[in-house]
Specification:
By secondary structure, the protein is of the alpha/beta class. Helix content is about 35%, strand content about 30%. The protein has a five-stranded mixed β-barrel, surrounded by four helices. It is globular.
Length: about 240
Protein backbone atom coordinates (compact mmCIF):
# COMPACT_ATOMS: atom_id res chain seq x y z
CA UNK A 1 0.00 0.00 0.00
CA UNK A 2 1.36 3.41 -0.99
CA UNK A 3 -0.44 6.72 -0.59
CA UNK A 4 -0.24 9.54 -3.09
CA UNK A 5 -0.78 12.93 -1.44
CA UNK A 6 -1.69 15.71 -3.86
CA UNK A 7 -1.77 19.42 -3.02
CA UNK A 8 -2.32 22.25 -5.48
CA UNK A 9 -0.12 24.87 -3.79
CA UNK A 10 3.20 24.92 -1.96
CA UNK A 11 1.68 26.17 1.31
CA UNK A 12 -0.68 23.15 1.29
CA UNK A 13 2.21 20.70 0.83
CA UNK A 14 4.78 22.29 3.14
CA UNK A 15 3.59 20.86 6.47
CA UNK A 16 3.09 17.39 5.01
CA UNK A 17 6.51 17.29 3.36
CA UNK A 18 8.21 18.32 6.61
CA UNK A 19 6.88 15.20 8.35
CA UNK A 20 8.01 12.67 5.73
CA UNK A 21 10.75 10.39 7.06
CA UNK A 22 13.72 9.54 4.80
CA UNK A 23 12.32 12.02 2.29
CA UNK A 24 13.86 11.87 -1.16
CA UNK A 25 13.08 13.84 -4.29
CA UNK A 26 12.03 11.81 -7.31
CA UNK A 27 11.54 13.29 -10.79
CA UNK A 28 8.37 12.17 -12.55
CA UNK A 29 7.89 13.94 -15.90
CA UNK A 30 7.66 17.64 -14.96
CA UNK A 31 6.98 16.94 -11.28
CA UNK A 32 9.16 16.72 -8.21
CA UNK A 33 7.70 14.02 -5.99
CA UNK A 34 8.68 13.69 -2.33
CA UNK A 35 8.80 10.01 -1.40
CA UNK A 36 9.38 8.41 1.98
CA UNK A 37 7.20 7.32 4.88
CA UNK A 38 4.67 8.99 7.16
CA UNK A 39 4.26 7.08 10.42
CA UNK A 40 5.67 4.04 8.64
CA UNK A 41 3.28 4.31 5.69
CA UNK A 42 4.88 4.71 2.22
CA UNK A 43 3.88 8.02 0.63
CA UNK A 44 4.54 10.05 -2.49
CA UNK A 45 3.61 13.71 -1.97
CA UNK A 46 3.49 16.32 -4.71
CA UNK A 47 2.37 19.83 -5.61
CA UNK A 48 0.26 19.56 -8.73
CA UNK A 49 -0.48 23.21 -9.45
CA UNK A 50 -3.85 24.95 -9.56
CA UNK A 51 -6.67 23.66 -11.72
CA UNK A 52 -8.25 20.45 -12.93
CA UNK A 53 -5.86 19.65 -15.80
CA UNK A 54 -2.77 19.93 -13.59
CA UNK A 55 -4.46 17.78 -10.96
CA UNK A 56 -5.53 15.08 -13.43
CA UNK A 57 -2.07 14.82 -15.02
CA UNK A 58 -0.46 14.58 -11.61
CA UNK A 59 -2.84 11.89 -10.38
CA UNK A 60 -2.20 9.68 -13.39
CA UNK A 61 1.57 10.14 -13.07
CA UNK A 62 1.51 9.17 -9.39
CA UNK A 63 -0.46 6.03 -10.22
CA UNK A 64 1.55 5.06 -13.30
CA UNK A 65 5.08 6.17 -12.40
CA UNK A 66 5.12 6.06 -8.59
CA UNK A 67 2.88 3.06 -8.01
CA UNK A 68 0.49 4.70 -5.55
CA UNK A 69 -2.48 2.54 -4.55
CA UNK A 70 -4.52 5.19 -2.69
CA UNK A 71 -4.83 8.97 -3.11
CA UNK A 72 -5.47 11.77 -0.62
CA UNK A 73 -6.06 15.29 -1.93
CA UNK A 74 -5.45 17.96 0.70
CA UNK A 75 -5.97 21.70 0.51
CA UNK A 76 -8.28 24.68 0.91
CA UNK A 77 -11.77 25.41 -0.40
CA UNK A 78 -14.66 27.83 -0.38
CA UNK A 79 -17.46 26.86 1.97
CA UNK A 80 -20.93 26.17 0.55
CA UNK A 81 -22.74 24.27 3.30
CA UNK A 82 -24.48 26.57 5.80
CA UNK A 83 -23.03 24.56 8.69
CA UNK A 84 -19.50 25.63 7.76
CA UNK A 85 -17.38 28.54 8.90
CA UNK A 86 -13.85 29.54 7.92
CA UNK A 87 -11.32 26.94 9.22
CA UNK A 88 -13.88 24.13 9.42
CA UNK A 89 -13.15 20.98 7.41
CA UNK A 90 -14.91 18.94 4.73
CA UNK A 91 -14.15 15.30 3.96
CA UNK A 92 -15.52 14.07 0.65
CA UNK A 93 -18.33 11.61 0.28
CA UNK A 94 -18.09 12.18 -3.46
CA UNK A 95 -16.86 14.76 -5.96
CA UNK A 96 -18.37 16.41 -9.03
CA UNK A 97 -17.27 18.68 -11.89
CA UNK A 98 -19.58 21.66 -11.37
CA UNK A 99 -18.33 23.33 -14.56
CA UNK A 100 -18.82 20.37 -16.93
CA UNK A 101 -21.90 21.16 -19.00
CA UNK A 102 -23.28 19.31 -21.99
CA UNK A 103 -26.89 19.71 -20.93
CA UNK A 104 -27.63 20.78 -24.52
CA UNK A 105 -27.22 17.07 -25.38
CA UNK A 106 -29.61 16.04 -22.59
CA UNK A 107 -26.88 15.13 -20.13
CA UNK A 108 -27.32 15.99 -16.47
CA UNK A 109 -25.18 18.88 -15.19
CA UNK A 110 -21.69 17.63 -14.41
CA UNK A 111 -22.19 14.27 -16.13
CA UNK A 112 -19.18 13.19 -18.22
CA UNK A 113 -19.98 10.83 -21.12
CA UNK A 114 -19.03 7.25 -20.25
CA UNK A 115 -20.20 7.54 -16.64
CA UNK A 116 -23.63 6.77 -15.19
CA UNK A 117 -23.55 9.59 -12.63
CA UNK A 118 -21.93 13.02 -12.29
CA UNK A 119 -20.50 11.96 -8.92
CA UNK A 120 -17.27 10.08 -8.15
CA UNK A 121 -17.64 8.18 -4.88
CA UNK A 122 -14.92 8.61 -2.27
CA UNK A 123 -13.57 5.57 -0.45
CA UNK A 124 -15.59 4.87 2.70
CA UNK A 125 -12.65 3.48 4.67
CA UNK A 126 -10.51 6.53 3.94
CA UNK A 127 -13.39 8.83 4.84
CA UNK A 128 -13.80 6.96 8.14
CA UNK A 129 -10.08 7.31 8.88
CA UNK A 130 -10.35 11.08 8.40
CA UNK A 131 -13.35 11.27 10.71
CA UNK A 132 -11.62 9.18 13.39
CA UNK A 133 -8.42 11.22 13.19
CA UNK A 134 -10.36 14.48 13.38
CA UNK A 135 -12.38 13.33 16.39
CA UNK A 136 -9.13 12.41 18.16
CA UNK A 137 -7.75 15.86 17.40
CA UNK A 138 -10.87 17.50 18.81
CA UNK A 139 -10.58 15.37 21.93
CA UNK A 140 -6.95 16.31 22.59
CA UNK A 141 -7.46 19.97 21.65
CA UNK A 142 -5.17 20.00 18.61
CA UNK A 143 -8.18 20.57 16.32
CA UNK A 144 -10.63 23.23 17.44
CA UNK A 145 -13.09 23.45 14.56
CA UNK A 146 -15.61 21.04 13.08
CA UNK A 147 -15.61 18.46 10.32
CA UNK A 148 -18.51 17.61 8.03
CA UNK A 149 -18.76 15.11 5.20
CA UNK A 150 -20.20 16.07 1.84
CA UNK A 151 -19.86 16.69 -1.87
CA UNK A 152 -16.73 18.43 -3.13
CA UNK A 153 -17.61 20.49 -6.22
CA UNK A 154 -14.72 21.35 -8.54
CA UNK A 155 -14.28 23.71 -11.46
CA UNK A 156 -11.68 25.87 -13.13
CA UNK A 157 -13.21 28.90 -11.45
CA UNK A 158 -12.61 30.73 -8.18
CA UNK A 159 -16.11 31.03 -6.75
CA UNK A 160 -16.71 34.42 -5.15
CA UNK A 161 -20.26 35.20 -6.19
CA UNK A 162 -23.44 34.50 -4.15
CA UNK A 163 -25.50 33.54 -7.22
CA UNK A 164 -22.93 31.04 -8.48
CA UNK A 165 -22.52 29.67 -4.97
CA UNK A 166 -26.29 29.15 -4.69
CA UNK A 167 -26.37 27.41 -8.08
CA UNK A 168 -23.67 24.91 -7.05
CA UNK A 169 -25.48 24.20 -3.79
CA UNK A 170 -28.86 23.75 -5.48
CA UNK A 171 -27.56 21.74 -8.43
CA UNK A 172 -25.05 19.43 -6.73
CA UNK A 173 -25.70 19.77 -2.98
CA UNK A 174 -22.08 20.87 -2.71
CA UNK A 175 -20.45 21.20 0.70
CA UNK A 176 -17.43 23.10 -0.63
CA UNK A 177 -15.99 24.28 -3.92
CA UNK A 178 -12.42 24.22 -5.19
CA UNK A 179 -10.40 23.60 -8.36
CA UNK A 180 -8.84 20.12 -8.31
CA UNK A 181 -10.70 17.44 -6.37
CA UNK A 182 -13.15 16.12 -8.97
CA UNK A 183 -10.44 15.65 -11.58
CA UNK A 184 -8.38 13.67 -9.07
CA UNK A 185 -11.47 11.63 -8.23
CA UNK A 186 -12.20 11.14 -11.94
CA UNK A 187 -8.73 9.74 -12.64
CA UNK A 188 -8.92 7.54 -9.54
CA UNK A 189 -12.27 6.17 -10.75
CA UNK A 190 -10.84 5.29 -14.15
CA UNK A 191 -7.89 3.53 -12.49
CA UNK A 192 -9.99 1.95 -9.70
CA UNK A 193 -7.84 3.64 -7.05
CA UNK A 194 -9.48 4.60 -3.72
CA UNK A 195 -9.40 8.32 -2.93
CA UNK A 196 -10.52 10.89 -0.42
CA UNK A 197 -10.48 14.70 -0.47
CA UNK A 198 -9.75 16.90 2.55
CA UNK A 199 -10.60 20.59 2.41
CA UNK A 200 -10.19 23.27 5.07
CA UNK A 201 -12.46 26.25 4.49
CA UNK A 202 -10.48 29.40 3.65
CA UNK A 203 -13.51 31.55 2.70
CA UNK A 204 -17.24 31.23 2.16
CA UNK A 205 -17.21 31.45 -1.66
CA UNK A 206 -18.72 34.92 -1.75
CA UNK A 207 -16.57 37.28 0.33
CA UNK A 208 -12.96 36.22 -0.22
CA UNK A 209 -11.95 39.87 -0.54
CA UNK A 210 -12.97 40.24 3.12
CA UNK A 211 -12.07 36.84 4.60
CA UNK A 212 -9.48 34.59 2.95
CA UNK A 213 -7.43 32.49 5.37
CA UNK A 214 -5.44 30.58 2.75
CA UNK A 215 -2.23 29.95 4.72
CA UNK A 216 -3.96 28.97 7.96
CA UNK A 217 -6.42 26.72 6.16
CA UNK A 218 -3.62 25.13 4.11
CA UNK A 219 -1.67 24.29 7.27
CA UNK A 220 -4.78 22.89 8.97
CA UNK A 221 -5.61 20.61 6.05
CA UNK A 222 -2.02 19.35 5.95
CA UNK A 223 -2.18 18.61 9.66
CA UNK A 224 -5.39 16.60 9.22
CA UNK A 225 -3.89 14.76 6.25
CA UNK A 226 -0.93 13.64 8.37
CA UNK A 227 -3.22 12.71 11.26
CA UNK A 228 -5.24 10.58 8.84
CA UNK A 229 -2.12 8.73 7.68
CA UNK A 230 -1.22 8.18 11.33
CA UNK A 231 -4.67 6.71 11.92
CA UNK A 232 -4.36 4.47 8.86
CA UNK A 233 -0.97 3.26 10.09
CA UNK A 234 -2.75 1.58 13.01
CA UNK A 235 -4.72 -0.64 10.66
CA UNK A 236 -1.65 -1.48 8.59
CA UNK A 237 0.57 -2.45 11.54
Amino acid sequence: MKFGIICAMSNELEGIKSKITDCREVSCAHLTVFEGTLYGVPVAAVQCGVGKVHAAITTQLLITCCGVTHVINSGVAGGLDSRLSVMDMVVSTKAVHHDFDITAWNYAPGLVPGFDTPYYEADAALQKAVETAYAAGQADGSLKHKLISGVVASGDQFINDPDKKAWIINTFNGACCEMEGASIAHVCAVNKVPYVILRCISDMAENADEVYEEDKAAAESGYVCCATIKELAKTLA
